[in-house]
Write a structure and sequence with these properties.
Elements: E1 8-9, E2 25-30, H1 35-42, E3 53-55, E4 61-63, E5 81-86, H2 96-113, E6 127-130, H3 147-150, H4 153-169, H5 177-194, H6 200-206, H7 208-221, H8 229-243, H9 247-251
Parallel strand pairs: 1-4, 2-5, 2-6, 3-5
Antiparallel strand pairs: 3-4
Helix pairs in contact: 2-4, 5-7, 7-8
The structure holds zinc ion.
Zinc ion (ZN) binds near residues 131, 141 and 144.
């Protein structure tokens, strides 16, 4: 299972469970539609289409398919590439916020799957690629994502390199261990109001060292840009969802 921290996970219906064979890189697409419209389409069985990630023009980032599973975005390229659909229509350029969102996905693919931070020009390369590079085998989508977005790929790459570099240069961001423990305690209180004392998440939160280590890792992944407790709380809750799938319900109305 692989879900990207910082991307809102909305599982869609169309995908092949455990179907991802490898991750050679990230493939950029243009939707010809909206974020909501694409999500609805990927939930429609007759569409036979989906992608791992989607961005909105405002930079909103969603994950629709776990990257252990195969999304249906670029035909023969599905098994070995993860996909990002971008809100907009053919001929558009990506917004600055979308460039950043794509860079975040690429940086995450680099740390998670060792995807090299380079441009891919064909399916036999690795790195940051685009739909049309796969030619007929990838469905013959010669206009996806279009020349203006292809021209932006070096900017996405440069930004991903920056994110990765920031991560390495900011080992603990600005939070002390004591602050992290107070935040963990706050999360524990949220949870404890909504349930008994027996969940995995509870046990997890009692393990202060694990919480501290995980919060540090999240802080690193967000480029050390943690400036307020609310941000780290959100990040920690996202992490906790992987520990206890019931947290959504428990935290409803409290977070
Ligand atoms: Zn495409």
């Amino acid at each position: 299972m692989a879900r990207m921290p910082g991307a809102a996970f909305h599982r869609v219906r169309n995908y092949t469970a455990d179907g991802q064979q490898s991750v050679r890189g990230v493939v950029v697409h243009i939707m010809a539609g909206t974020l909501e419209g694409s999500q609805a389409w990927f939930n429609n069985a007759t569409a036979q289409a989906s992608s791992h990630f989607g961005t909105g023009r405002d930079g909103e980032l969603r994950q629709w398919v776990d990257t252990a599973d195969r999304a249906w975005a670029q035909a023969a390229g599905n098994r070995d590439w993860i996909s990002v659909e971008n809100e907009g229509v053919g001929g558009d350029a990506l917004t600055d916020a979308q460039i950043t969102a794509n860079a975040r996905v690429l940086a995450w693919a680099h740390t998670t799957y060792d995807v090299p931070l380079q441009l891919a020009k064909s399916p036999s390369d690795r790195g940051l690629g685009y739909h049309a590079m796969g030619g007929a085998a990838w469905g013959g989508h010669t206009q996806c994502p279009g020349p203006r977005i292809v021209a932006q790929l070096p900017t996405i790459l440069a930004r991903a390199k920056q994110l990765v570099a920031n991560t390495q240069e900011t080992p603990v961001a600005d939070l002390t261990d004591a602050q992290i423990q107070r935040i963990a305690l706050a999360v524990w209180r949220y949870m404890n109001e909504g349930q008994g004392e027996t969940s995995d998440a509870y046990a997890y939160l009692r393990n202060t060292k694990a919480v501290v280590d995980d919060v540090k890792e999240i802080t690193n992944r967000t480029g050390g840009q943690v400036v307020e407790q609310r941000v780290i709380l959100t990040a920690l809750m996202a992490l906790l969802k992987t520990v206890d799938g019931k947290l959504d319900q428990l935290l409803e109305g409290q977070a």
